[in-house]
Structure formats: C-alpha cells, structure tokens
Amino acid sequence: MSESHYEDQYLDLMRRIWREGDQRVDRTGVGTRSVFGTQLRFSLADNAIPLLTTKRVYWKTAAREMLWFLTGETNIRPLVLQGVKIWNEWPHARYVKETGDDLPLDDFVQRIADDEAFAARWGDLGPVYGKQWVDWPTFRYRADGLYEKGEGINQVREVIESLRTNPGSRRHIIEGWNVAELDRMALPPCHKTYQFHVGGGGTTLNCALYQRSCCSEELDGDECSEDESEPGHVSWPSRLPSHGLIPSHPIIIIIIIIIIIITIIIIIIIIIIIIIIIIII
Q1: Which residues belong to the active site?
Q2: Distance (Å, rounded) from C-alpha 281 to C-alpha 279?
Q3: What is the value of pTM for the model shown?
Q4: Which residues of 23-41 are buried (b: 16+ CB within 10 A; e: fewer)?
Q5: In whole numbers, what is the pLDDT of the chain averaged over residues?
Q6: Side-by-side strand order, sheet with 204-211
Q7: Which of 21, 42, 155, 207 is 20 to 30 Å from 141 at the Cα level?
C-alpha cells in the first residue's frame, strides 16, 4: 500500500476509465466505457472498511443485503421489510411480463410486504449470490442410473473451517458462478469469486475478490446494479457529457465553493460602493 489515501486509487481508476476506456454497447442500452483486468488494494487492518466518500454509498443497505446473502435467502421480502430496494425491479419486471398486469413498482413492493403468499409467488430471484454461497446444489448418483438432489454445500462454513484447520491451503475459495444455474438467476453475480490467504505467520487474513462487472458511477435508481458489461470489466456510463470531468477530491470542491462565495461577496460590496457613490454625487 502506498502512503496516499486509499481512495486515490479509485479516483485514478475513474479518470483512466473516462479518458482511456473502450466505448461499448451493453444490454441496458446505456452504454459504457470500460477497462479490463484492473486491481485495487485496500487494507482492512484495525477493523477498517474502505468506504468511498466521493460517491454516495448506502452503508446500512449494503450491510443488510450482505446479511441477507449469508442466510441463503433468495426472496426479496426480508429486504423489502427492512426498506432495502436494491432487488425490487427484477421480480416486478417478471410479474408484469408473466401476468400482463402493469402494476406500479411501488404498489408491487407494498404487496410483497403485506402479502406473504404473493411474495412467495412473485418475490423470488432464483439461485442468486447467497444461495450459491451457503447452499450450492449437489446431486447423488443412484443405483438405477438416475440422480437425486443431495445436501447443499455451505461454502462459507467450509472456508471458515479450512482457514482454522488448514491455513496454508490454497483452496480457501468461495465461488458464486454456477454455470448450470445462471439462466435461473435474476442477475448473474457481478462479484463472483473470493479467495482467502493466511499470511504473516498466521496473523493476517488476505482476500482477493474477482468482479466480472462493476458499474463505477451512481445513477438514478438501480442502474448500476443492473449493469452487465463484459466479464472482468470496470465501466463508467457513457451517457455522461463528453466534456465531463470526474469529480475531484472533496477538499478541492470545498475550496472552489469558498472561492465562488468570496467572489459573490466582493461583487456585492462593489455594487454597494457604486450605489453609495451615486447617492452622494
């Protein structure tokens, strides 16, 4: 890690995407600029979390979603009841498509919250994220030559156990990209592979996270979470103005605001002085 602030590498990446990224057409129709195979490093020592300050981050929403993942749940109702809106659009779109009922999104979400049976029928996302993490499907071969469903694999529990009992292993991996079930998922996982490494004589835990697609600019609604660029790409929405610049550090923004305020005050003072002179004359 360099001595610069950890967020500088994120801002540098944003500049690189905007200035050097390839222009691409994607599923959403928004379009992106993207680069491939980039890497960011963050230290989580002393219980630190590299929360970005130059874009809006809904910390409580992210935490609730993560806890929801870890339950293996795939229905949005637990999230809806906590006010988390991240996944609402996908079940709603499916409901409208399959029923022909053009129910407004807000009304659909309210019904998910109020009607447990309706939520069970229409609130499921398929085997996304947490389902793969804690209940990866298995199948057992039977004597009659057929297969039957076996007990699911809790990858999170197994990795925790292997970290404790065999820290030197190179197999501390959690995988979310289940090729056999991608078509059943509302959205294939963007962050998909997590490998852990024990270092520092057993005192340091490292993690490498592979993300096939990452939208790097906050848009209205949940368009970032819907972005589906090429695997491993980090992208910036190309609908931004062609002359747009990536936001600078907050301190620079504050300085600019102060300069503008001072300029306005000076102009007001000059106007007052001119008015006084005119009155005196």
Answers
A1: 190
A2: 5
A3: 0.73
A4: eeebeeebebbbbeeeeee
A5: 85
A6: 173-175, 191-199, 204-211
A7: 155
Model confidence at 120, in pLDDT bands (50, 70, 90)? Answer: very high
The string of pLDDT tens digits covering residues 237-256 is: 444 333 334 444 566 778 88
CB 47 within 8 A of CB 89: no
The model's pLDDT over 91-108, given as tens digits with 9 standing for 90+, comes to 999 999 999 999 999 999
Distance CA 13, CA 236 (A): 10
**216's tokens:** 């790097």
The tokens describing 36, both together, are 């491939």
What DSSP assignment string belongs to 188-221?
Answer: --SEEEEEEEEEGGGTEEEEEEEESEEE-S--ST
Instruction: Please give the biggest Cα pair distance in the chain.
Output: 110
Name the residue type at position 145: G
